[in-house]
Amino acid sequence: MTPGDRPAATRGPTRTFGMSALVIGIISGTVGVVVARLAFGPRTALAGAVVGLVLGIPASLWIGTSRRRPAPRLANGHRLRGRAHPVAWVGPVFGSAITVVAWAGVAHSSGSGWVQAVGALLAAVLATGLVAPLFPALRARATCTAGPSDAVAGQAVALTLRVSGPLRIRPLLPVGPAQRAEGRSRGPRLVTVEVVPSRRGVLGSVAVELASSAPFGLVWWAREVIVPLHRPLHVAPRIGPAEPVDVGSDDRAGDAYRRLPATVGEVRGVRPYRSGDLRRAIHWPATAHAGTLMVTEADRQVDDPVVLDVVLPPEPDEAERAAERAMATASGYLARGVPLLLVTLEEGGRTVRPVVDRVELGRRLARAVPAPVAPAASGPSRRFRR
């Protein structure tokens, strides 16, 4: 369940990618110059070159991506990208190209020098707005400075991240709403990001998208990274329907939850004498008052724990539901003060340890893994007295 446990993405040679981007840039710029001169005259050659370069940038990125092996997918199906990429770039790029071409037509029709100068300035601004966010996206960094150690599946968890600049942070795994890192224009700043784990488990890192649209906000460039957590996050399962349990308890006449009749221990009351009762158990004041033999009835508290053996099936959804049922059953025992011994299978092997509260219970079930071989006809969990 940890995003950082995936294999690293295999990247193509940097030299090959740089050469392909250079060739595509030269070709697109040349085509832009030729089209501009044929359509609007020689004075629009510079604007045509700028438009050609702007259109060639996404093409070079696309070809560079196609030359690489597909990046591995996260647990939620998202394919993690290892380098910066434009987000929703089609509208801004083509909108800027149409604007530059339209202004070039106006400049060609008017013939005024100031119109051509304004057009060149407009083309430079649009090209800067489209390309400039790439560089802060490449330098984007994030580290986790604070976060809880326990959570419940399906509930939001707040993490404090230190990011390198004014970025947009969108959690990918676990998912969560996007947050803006506001503040001064330069330097790191702290931002609180909420993530919602969908399943139980132990999270050692999160996958986030760091995006920048500086300086003009025309197009977003993003970079997807793995951020190690400040400390491991144990995600406990939800509380599902509890399984039917017959505890065999009787606490109607005492404070202890489970009691058994005994000849020594805490006095519970008196009752009429029955054959087999010990002579020293006779309660003489009650016998004198009732006119018949009365004996003292005592009881002792049963301190043997209830053993909950949790066996998770290999299918992930079934394992999640089994853990939810085990969480509900064990929480019921703990709420009534019953000693509980939990048996789970973890990465290090079979673990048999008592649990004393809900926090420890959630951590044990978060670390539990399915059995390598599915159990036979038995249910997901077995309960017995030891």
Write up this protein.
The chain is of the alpha+beta class. It has four domains: 3-76 and 87-131, no CATH class; 137-235, Immunoglobulin-like; 260-301, no CATH class; 306-385, no CATH class. 34% of the residues lie in helices and 27% in strands. It has eight helices and 16 strands. Strands 1, 3, 5, 6, 8 and 9 form a six-stranded mixed beta sheet that branches. A four-stranded mixed beta sheet has the order 15-14-13-16, covered by helices on one side. Helix 1 (14-40) packs antiparallel against helix 2 and helix 3 packs antiparallel against helix 4 (113-131). The chain is rod-shaped, with a radius of gyration of 35 Å.
Could you give a short description of this structure?
The protein is of the alpha+beta class and 386 residues long. It is built from eight helices and 16 strands.
Q: How many structural domains are formed by the residues?
A: 4
> How much helicity do the residues have?
25-40%
Note the beta-strand portion.
25-35%
Radius of gyration: 35 Å
Q: Please report the number of helical segments.
A: 8
N-to-C span = 34 Å
Average pLDDT works out at 77
Number of E strands: 16
Global structural class: alpha+beta
Model regions low in confidence, pLDDT < 50 over at least 5 residues: 4-13, 246-265
Q: Secondary-structure element sequence?
A: HHEHHHEEEEEEEEEEHEEHEEHE
Q: What form results from the Cα inertia axes?
A: rod-shaped
Largest sheet entry: 6 strands, mixed
Topology summary:
Blueprint: H1 14-40, H2 45-66, E1 85-87, H3 90-110, H4 113-131, H5 134-138, E2 142-146, E3 150-152, E4 157-163, E5 168-173, E6 179-180, E7 189-195, E8 201-212, E9 220-236, E10 259-262, E11 266-272, H6 284-290, E12 294-301, E13 306-310, H7 316-335, E14 340-346, E15 349-355, H8 358-367, E16 381-385
Parallel strand pairs: 3-9, 13-14
Antiparallel strand pairs: 1-9, 2-4, 4-7, 5-6, 5-8, 8-9, 10-12, 11-12, 13-16, 14-15
